[in-house]
Amino acid sequence: MEKPPRIDFAPEHYINRELSWLKFNERVLEEALDESNPLVERLRFLLITETNLDEFFMVRVAGLKQKLFNDIDVENADGMQVHEVLKKIHTGVADYFENAYQLMNKVLLPACAERGIHLKSAEHLTAAEMGAVRRYFDTEIFPILTPLAIDMGHPFPRLANRSVNLAVTLRRKNKADSPDYFAVVQIPSVLPRLFLVSEKPNERHYLYLEDIIELFSHRMFKGFEVVETHAFRLTRDSDLVIEEDEGESLMKIVQLELRRREKGAAVRLEVRDTMPAEIVSRLTEALELEADDVYTCHGQLPFAGLKAILDDPLVANETFKPFTPIAPFKYDRPADLFSLIRAGDVLLHHPFHSFALVEDLIQAASDDATVLGIKITLYRTGVKSRIVDALIRAARNGKQVTALVELRARFDEETNIQWAKRMEDEGVHVVYGLIGFKTHCKVALIVRKEANKIVRYVHMSTGNYNSATARIYTDLSLITVDKAIAQDATHLFNSITGYSKLPAMQKLSTAPGNLKALVLKMIRREITHAQGGKKGRLIAKMNSLVDREVIDELYRASQAGVQIDLVVRGICCLRPGIAGVSENIRVRSVVGRLLEHSRILVAQNGGDPQVYLMSADWMPRNFIRRVEIAFPIENKHIKEKIIQNILQVYLNDNDSARVLDATGNYSRLRPEAKDAVNAQRVFIDECRSSQEEQKAALAKTKHLRKVKNPRK
């Protein structure tokens, strides 16, 4: 197939990656602002925006600042230089803090108060409450506090990343001419941020930990008068720099970098709006920050301090109505899964389909005498894992078990190291992947001997082997015994665990390798169809779209008349709706109670649709620096389900979807209630309906058994 002629697009045809991410966080904040969401969920969304922003500064902003430090101020595809991007980030984040604190102070906290949950200030404590607070300070807080003086003999301390601290100004008692002294007290992260001061029926009163410490701060500085105290919070560069060396253990390198993480350069300072300018200046200078690195907060910081309210019994019912994931088919015991999978490919749509089925499959393999080996990639497993427990049991049962554990899964490194050590101790063969690549694909391979033949069961997914995220992330996975896919999966594992060069694949596409080429090929084929007078059509769903070459190819497809619908949850650097460039491209982002995480690509292919699921987003890092897979969906019924019952529902969403326009802004479609289509709600309702049908069928079966055997 001939490659279309090269067309260079202008900088204004691209959206800046970092600014697009800020727009995504705005959409999450919209969920906290949405009055139709329950109170606890609105608080939860607010906390999520803060966690998102922390990671954004620890990784992305830190990287940009490092570029400037190294005198790298190059233009991006969008034409913006690094210093310009940082300036716009500051403006956007300052707006975020303004909006978020207004929401907290004017809406969410008053709503909590209406329900009996009160955040008290120290001056409003009753005598009984003051006594309770004093006892708590004496017994739990004071023993672990460490006041840190700052002067010529005491340099500014190395404060922990994301720590909340008190800046304390002091004067010597009984000395009118005493100069001001300065100290810092770090708020202990091992204690709850909210202390339950008192409670009575339908009423509970909390006090912030830092307010308690401020109240008794004079106890830490004998002989001094505490003039004023002000809270501040620090964020540091926390991206690991892994210099891989074939002669060094990757685990040791990652462990060393984790110790260095807390010592990264400061990248952000959050201060209360009550902090005087001279103290802000002193902190900024000590932390080697600029004025644009400082953000003013109009209330307690951070929002994470409100986490205790999420579990408060007075608002326990103000959450989304829960639903129970179902199995796509009935099975009595895990061992039954092998015959059911042999009967035909199985598609799982999480969290509406239970992740327990995947766990049961690995468990069945660990106990089945005919299973010879299990291989699996583990990216984010979570603190508790039935999968890991099953792998350990399989190793104890004498099976060949290989687990590829990605130690560099950002902010999950320590958890993965602990799992890797435990599995190694139990006899699991643990490997850490390819040098220079982060293993991000999600694949499990079970080798079983059946009737003197080897049968290989393959599970592939867009999401992680993590039971916690499987309840709140939307993902798709496929279980198959397809021989070509099984052979490809075997080659994939051999190339990761050994020195084997990855051969040409029959059905899977991989990165590094041909995954990006597959995406480009499918786009170009639709261009050819459109140029030949046929209907060109592409639908894709992903978390992020950043890769410039893919974006350019989508622009060319639009120019050729290909109709393109993209469902991009987060970053999108493509600018849709530009006349002559992208007028045939539509981009929407779905943000709701569940985190959209599935990656899907559908090409019309001249009337014979081609469907792929993949672990990769369309970003340079996924195509170049990660081990990823894309796997085809060949079963006709599963294809139809993905296109009609999943993707089309997202395209019909006019309630939780936001549509991206040519200016880079998102607008929410909010029709009248009777016309609203909310994709996640549709899937949840279908799940509940299927569950009711299963219950009815089970009740009918039990009734028939009683009729057939009345004596029983």
Automatic annotation (TrEMBL):
<keyword id="KW-0067">ATP-binding</keyword>
<dbReference type="InterPro" id="IPR025200">
    <property type="entry name" value="PPK_C_dom2"/>
</dbReference>
<dbReference type="InterPro" id="IPR025198">
    <property type="entry name" value="PPK_N_dom"/>
</dbReference>
<keyword id="KW-0597">Phosphoprotein</keyword>
<feature type="domain" description="Polyphosphate kinase C-terminal">
    <location>
        <begin position="508"/>
        <end position="680"/>
    </location>
</feature>
<keyword id="KW-0460">Magnesium</keyword>
<dbReference type="InterPro" id="IPR003414">
    <property type="entry name" value="PP_kinase"/>
</dbReference>
<feature type="binding site">
    <location>
        <position position="52"/>
    </location>
    <ligand>
        <name>ATP</name>
    </ligand>
</feature>
<dbReference type="InterPro" id="IPR036832">
    <property type="entry name" value="PPK_N_dom_sf"/>
</dbReference>
<feature type="domain" description="Polyphosphate kinase N-terminal">
    <location>
        <begin position="14"/>
        <end position="119"/>
    </location>
</feature>
<keyword id="KW-0547">Nucleotide-binding</keyword>
<keyword id="KW-0808">Transferase</keyword>
<dbReference type="Pfam" id="PF02503">
    <property type="entry name" value="PP_kinase"/>
</dbReference>
<feature type="domain" description="Polyphosphate kinase C-terminal">
    <location>
        <begin position="337"/>
        <end position="501"/>
    </location>
</feature>
<dbReference type="GO" id="GO:0008976">
    <property type="term" value="F:polyphosphate kinase activity"/>
</dbReference>
<dbReference type="Pfam" id="PF13090">
    <property type="entry name" value="PP_kinase_C"/>
</dbReference>
<comment type="similarity">
    <text>Belongs to the polyphosphate kinase 1 (PPK1) family.</text>
</comment>
<protein>
    <recommendedName>
        <fullName>Polyphosphate kinase</fullName>
        <ecNumber>2.7.4.1</ecNumber>
    </recommendedName>
</protein>
<dbReference type="GO" id="GO:0005524">
    <property type="term" value="F:ATP binding"/>
</dbReference>
<dbReference type="GO" id="GO:0009358">
    <property type="term" value="C:polyphosphate kinase complex"/>
</dbReference>
<feature type="binding site">
    <location>
        <position position="410"/>
    </location>
    <ligand>
        <name>Mg(2+)</name>
    </ligand>
</feature>
<comment type="function">
    <text>Catalyzes the reversible transfer of the terminal phosphate of ATP to form a long-chain polyphosphate (polyP).</text>
</comment>
<feature type="binding site">
    <location>
        <position position="380"/>
    </location>
    <ligand>
        <name>Mg(2+)</name>
    </ligand>
</feature>
<keyword id="KW-0479">Metal-binding</keyword>
<dbReference type="GO" id="GO:0006799">
    <property type="term" value="P:polyphosphate biosynthetic process"/>
</dbReference>
<feature type="domain" description="Polyphosphate kinase middle">
    <location>
        <begin position="132"/>
        <end position="306"/>
    </location>
</feature>
<dbReference type="InterPro" id="IPR041108">
    <property type="entry name" value="PP_kinase_C_1"/>
</dbReference>
<dbReference type="InterPro" id="IPR036830">
    <property type="entry name" value="PP_kinase_middle_dom_sf"/>
</dbReference>
<dbReference type="InterPro" id="IPR024953">
    <property type="entry name" value="PP_kinase_middle"/>
</dbReference>
<dbReference type="Pfam" id="PF17941">
    <property type="entry name" value="PP_kinase_C_1"/>
</dbReference>
<feature type="binding site">
    <location>
        <position position="473"/>
    </location>
    <ligand>
        <name>ATP</name>
    </ligand>
</feature>
<feature type="binding site">
    <location>
        <position position="569"/>
    </location>
    <ligand>
        <name>ATP</name>
    </ligand>
</feature>
<feature type="active site" description="Phosphohistidine intermediate">
    <location>
        <position position="440"/>
    </location>
</feature>
<feature type="binding site">
    <location>
        <position position="597"/>
    </location>
    <ligand>
        <name>ATP</name>
    </ligand>
</feature>
<dbReference type="Pfam" id="PF13089">
    <property type="entry name" value="PP_kinase_N"/>
</dbReference>
<keyword id="KW-0418">Kinase</keyword>
<dbReference type="GO" id="GO:0046872">
    <property type="term" value="F:metal ion binding"/>
</dbReference>
